[in-house]
Amino acid sequence: MARFSILENVSLILLINLVIITTTTTTVLTNEIITTYQSCSAFHASMEISNDLDYDNSTLTLASTDYGLKIHEKPLAVLEPTSITEISELIKVSNSLCTPFTIAARGQAHSVYGQAMAREGIVVNMTHLNGYRHGKGVVIFRDEKDPWNSYADVGGEQVWDDVLNAALEYGLTPLSFTDSLGTSVGGTLVNAGIGAQVFKFGPQIANVYELDVITGKGDLKTCSAEKNSKLFYGVLGGLGQFGIITRARIALGPADFSAYSKDQEYLISLNGRNDNAFDAVEGFLMINQWPNIIDFFPTQDLPRINSLLAQHNILYVLELAKYYDDSTQDQIDQDVERLVMGLKYVPTFKYEKDLLYQNFLHRSESAAAGQGLPGGPKSWLDTFVPGSRISDVNEGVFKNIIFKQNLSANGIILIFPMNRTKWNDKMSVAIPDEEVFYLVSVLQAVTYDTLKIFDDQKNQILKFYKDSGIGIKQYLPRNKTHEEWIEHFGSKWQKFEEAKNKFDPKRILAPGQGIFQLNNKICML
Ligand SMILES: Cc1cc2nc3c(=O)[nH]c(=O)nc-3n(C[C@H](O)[C@H](O)[C@H](O)COP(=O)(O)OP(=O)(O)OC[C@H]3O[C@@H](n4cnc5c(N)ncnc54)[C@H](O)[C@@H]3O)c2cc1C
Ligand SMILES: *[C@@H]1O[C@H](CO)[C@@H](O)[C@H](O)[C@H]1NC(C)=O
Ligand SMILES: *[C@@H]1O[C@H](CO)[C@@H](O)[C@H](O)[C@H]1NC(C)=O
Ligand SMILES: *[C@@H]1O[C@H](CO)[C@@H](O)[C@H](O)[C@H]1NC(C)=O
Ligand SMILES: *[C@@H]1O[C@H](CO)[C@@H](O)[C@H](O)[C@H]1NC(C)=O
Ligand SMILES: *[C@@H]1O[C@H](CO)[C@@H](O)[C@H](O)[C@H]1NC(C)=O
Q: Which residue's C-alpha comes closest to atom 8 of ligand 4?
């Protein structure tokens, strides 16, 4: 198995009328409200509210349950709002009563101590606003000039996971996360939202530009550090005491290339023979003008993939495989789900295929054959890049040379990391000093007419490596001067030369590598 790897109110009526004109079912609730709370002033509330109050026992039971399973406070009803106005009206209704009822916004109820409950009051099921948003609960604004100025306008009811996924589709990400992405934006912003990134970006409440809040008086206000700043700072970390957050403008930053390389490095860190891990980890790039290995992807998805590519210029593809047999077939899907969990690929861009083991191993040749390769001369460059410098390669080689030059090419760019501990340093092969290093291969089949252009590009890449001191090693090295060979083998050169003297003193073997010259001095003695 190979798996490759974002209303307005209609009618206004008196609350007291609500009892009279509503169905028998709502009468129970409203009777209760009326008997519990007496109307002081004649406030007009819309029909909408009474229609959207749910007092089913099962709903009330749910609303009196949270993650902690310790506290159970039963509300009179749950409001399932179909608009923001409705929440504001509900609050105004309560304000209009001699004895107001309490109101609690309920996000994802990840509280453990009844914080989102309202005994004898009304719980507002914020999740219901999803219907009102029409799929626009998260709207991303990407600043092309400076991605650090990007932001997301997010409904207070939205779940962080959805914010993340939407942002990633634009190559962006929120800056600070809690350990659970299943919480709502409103729910964490009334606390702080702390996690692994606080040390760098501060808590989630420090990454908010603006809020829409319905205050305890029922007024909808927009606030920020500049505008209504008391409300703004009060609400952030204010435990829901001052208002209900209906929109938050969340700071976003670039979701950089390191998300990809970190995922790859994570995947190869699971490398024990008995680890439950992927059995194969590779990666490749999709760039404009490169005929990619698209035969893997479903044809109907190609437009979607191409539009993502047009948007981002370069796509980084993870290629993973998990082997299975009859005995493990039942759990393969679960295993794969678990293994890809937490990887930061663009959601919904995961494709899977079941292949015979041999066909998987032959996938590259099959793809090459599909592209009409391997005819024509080749312009290939394979390099080992120290793990710590891989993002420099992304900038300097992928973006600044290959993407910019936009040469139409027939081939592939491979990139994947390896762990040095699986290599033996006694062996001759030259590899970088770091524990993790990447193979970066730019492989093209060209024509005799274009060969020079492509080889020039390779030489520019090599020059970039040299100038930036990245300390790469060539894999399948060639075309080097004597000094360059010495540099290539580095500390291994001496042993390499000694071995040559010992095992092939006349330098007869493999002259095509261009390392040693045939030794005919011995004859001349
Ligand atoms: C498994 C797990 C891991 C967690 N990890 C972390 C962590 O790493 N870091 C961290 O900081 N926290 C963490 N938490 C705590 C969590 O962030 C808070 O409990 C948060 O309030 C949960 O959000 P929620 O949407 O479920 O809120 P709810 O439980 O639904 O509500 C919490 C409070 O917020 C109010 N509220 C909800 N929505 C709004 C809104 N839109 N406007 C105003 N008030 C609102 C509610 O009335 C209630 O008072 C974790 C919780 C769990 C269960
Ligand atoms: C409501 O549901 C709870 C939990 O299922 C149950 O204990 C209770 O008896 C029910 N109440 C009514 C009035 O049906
Ligand atoms: C809130 O609404 C969502 C979406 O309709 C639903 O899945 C959830 O069960 C509701 N929660 C409560 C407490 O009613
Ligand atoms: C490399 O592999 C070794 C042996 O499995 C392991 O201990 C080490 O953590 C790995 N290094 C990285 C950076 O993954
Ligand atoms: C790359 O070149 C092709 C034509 O050769 C052109 O259609 C395309 O717009 C170019 N892309 C960029 C980013 O310059
Ligand atoms: C070999 O390397 C030199 C520079 O060191 C370069 O000018 C030349 O083009 C290279 N030849 C080939 C075939 O790549």
A: 269
Tens of pLDDT, residues 360-416: 777 766 666 656 555 678 889 999 999 989 988 998 999 999 999 998 878 889 999
- Distance CA(334)–CA(13), nearest Å, equals 54
Structure tokens at 347: 């959601």
Q: Please say whether the beta carbons of 247 and 212 come within 8 A.
A: yes
Which tokens in the block code for residue 435?
């524990």
Name the residue of 25, 32, 57 to mutate for ligand 2: max ligand atoms within 8 A of Cβ.
57
Nearest CA to ligand 3 atom 1: 125
| H/E element, 94 | helix 84-96
Ligand closest to the CA atom of residue 57: 2
Tell me how far the alpha carbon of residue 313 is from its chain's centroid.
17
With a 6 A CB cut-off, is 305 part of the ligand 4 pocket? no
Residue of 179, 337, 449, 467 marked catalytic: 179
The CA-atom distances, in angstroms, between 455 and each of 70, 129, 438, 446, 470 are 69, 57, 22, 10, 20
**Interval 482-497: pLDDT, tens:** 999 999 999 999 999 9
Q: Is the CB of 57 under 6 A from ligand 2?
A: yes
Question: For residue 374, is the peptide bond before it cis, meaning its omega torsion is within 30 degrees of 0?
Answer: yes
* Coil, helix or strand at residue 328: coil
- Check residue 426 and give its pLDDT: 87
Diameter of the chain measured on Cα atoms: 121
Reduce the DSSP state of residue 30 to 3 states and report it. helix
Q: Which helix (H) or strand (E) holds 378?
A: strand 378-386
Quick one: tokens of 48?
């909408």
Q: How far away, in angstroms, is 57 Cα from ligand 2 center?
A: 6
pLDDT of amino acid 3 = 32
Provide the CB-side half-sphere exposure for 112 (13 A, CA): 1
Ligand 5 pocket test: pick from 400, 402, 406, 408 the residue with the most ligand atoms within 8 Å of its Cβ: 406
Domains defined for the chain, CATH in brackets: 2-131 (3.30.43.10), 135-254 (3.30.465.10), 258-476 (3.40.462.10), 484-524 (no CATH)
CA-atom Rg of the chain in angstroms: 31
Residue with CA closest to ligand 1 atom 21: 187
Stretches in the chain below the pLDDT threshold 70 = 1-47, 289-294, 364-375, 520-525
Predicted TM-score (pTM) of this structure = 0.64
Structure confidence at residue 485 (pLDDT) = 96
- Spacing, Cα 75 to ligand 2 middle (Å): 13
